[in-house]
Amino acid sequence: MPIDLKPILEKIRASGLWRSLRRVDGPTGAEYAIDGKTVLGFCSNDYLGLAADPRVRAGAIRAVEQYGAGSGGSRLISGNLAIHEELEARLAAFKGTQAALLYNSGYHANIGIITALVGPDDHIYSDALNHASLIDGCRLSRATVRVYRHGDVQHLSDLLAADADKPGKKLVVTDSLFSMDGDLAPLPEIVPVAHKYGAEIMVDEAHGTGVFGKNGRGVVDHFNLRWAVGVQMGTLGKSLGSFGAYVAGRRELIDLLVNRSRSFIFTTALPPAAAGAALASLDILEQEPQRIAKLWQLTAAYRAALRKAGHRALGESPIVPLVLGAPEEAVAASQRLFERGYHMQAIRPPTVPEGTSRLRTTVTAAHTEAQVLGAAQAIADVLGAPRHS
Ligand code: PMP
Fold it and tell me: Which of 358, 306, 362 is nearest to 331 (CA)?
């Protein structure tokens, strides 16, 4: 008997939370076609505009020519290709750590790292706005999870203090640049608190990489905290324009993950093309820091134009969210902007908390100043007098 899915689907529709896929024709970039209509894109995570860069494409093609389309097996069986090790060495050097390990996606990485590090006898302290993959990693680990209010180090400190005498390992987990709010974790304040209570710190640099730090090394580098953050996770699918993820840290951490991390062990190794593209992107980050400077110039111009029109966006980064409230409102705004030629996706629960549905807009280095100013104007026209915070 097929399970009756109709009532479930009807409930999703009735709550304004229906999701459906939109087809993008051609490569991602400042401009692309969606369902046949050419639009300016303002919601991708390709912050440096590298996904379609000819050199990054060439890196992928070279890797395919040298290693084939697929890796043929998991890393521990037959799939540990030279290009994986080459990329891991590059990432470790980039992050300034002893070693690095690839995962097939950020989602795999987060569930695999957390579950290998802590278990039922241990404790996790997790920011309330952490990404879903971190939340799922926490749940899968079966550790006791304490959620601290977003960015609230005093709350984190209180939770750690309450557990001070409890046995077991302790892990503080946070996004570095929050994906839906565009703000930074207060790492300089988190570090001394975590260390006071003997907790390890894990930071998710999915969005921080390529945006913050020297040559895009991330938020941990931006704050000069490499020495203090033991577990630096990052992805290849955002600023690096490819696909996949990594963790960078001490040799022992990587040894543990190779032995214990189920989402590393029980899956086919990253395709060579993804590794080749990421290597090419890392070259570009080293050679063209002006891309990051341009990203920040455009971000400043876009945020200033929104502010001038009376619209206050959250955060302090190229992730520029405008909170509207009800899911229907965010969807309607997104639709009106689409009609004007802008792709700005509505983000609704459970991706963001109830009552905070929003337009999550992003600037990339592939945009021009005229494009970001046009986008700010379109937002001002569509949203009218500011109502959001
Ligand atoms: N962490 C954060 C903060 C993210 O935003 C994302 C992706 N949106 C991930 C992890 C998962 O990365 P991936 O897309 O490579 O699975």
Answer: 358
pLDDT digits (tens, 9 = 90+) for 59-108: 999 999 999 999 999 999 999 999 999 999 999 999 999 999 999 999 99
User: Residue 19 C-alpha to ligand 1 middle, in angstroms?
Assistant: 19
What residues contact residue 20 under an 8 Å CB cut-off, 6+ apart? none
179 in catalytic set = yes
* CB of 219 sitting under 6 A from ligand 1: no
Nearest C-alpha neighbor of 233 from the set 265, 252, 209? 209
**Tens digits of per-residue pLDDT, 23-55?**
998 888 999 999 889 999 999 999 999 999 999
Of 41, 38, 44, 45, which Cα lies nearest the Cα of 30?
A: 41
> Would you say 248 and 232 are in contact if contact means Cβ atoms under 8 Å apart?
yes
Query: What CA–CA distance (Å, rounded) separates 29 from 382?
Result: 23
Would you state the structure tokens that stand for residue 149, as one six-digit string?
């209010």
pTM: 0.96
Please answer whether residues 234 and 218 qualify as being in contact, where contact means their C-beta atoms are separated by less than 8 angstroms.
Answer: yes
Q: Is 204 in the pocket of ligand 1 (CB under 6 A)?
A: yes
Q: What is the mean pLDDT of residues 107-127?
A: 98
Rounded CA gap, 120 and 2, in Å?
36
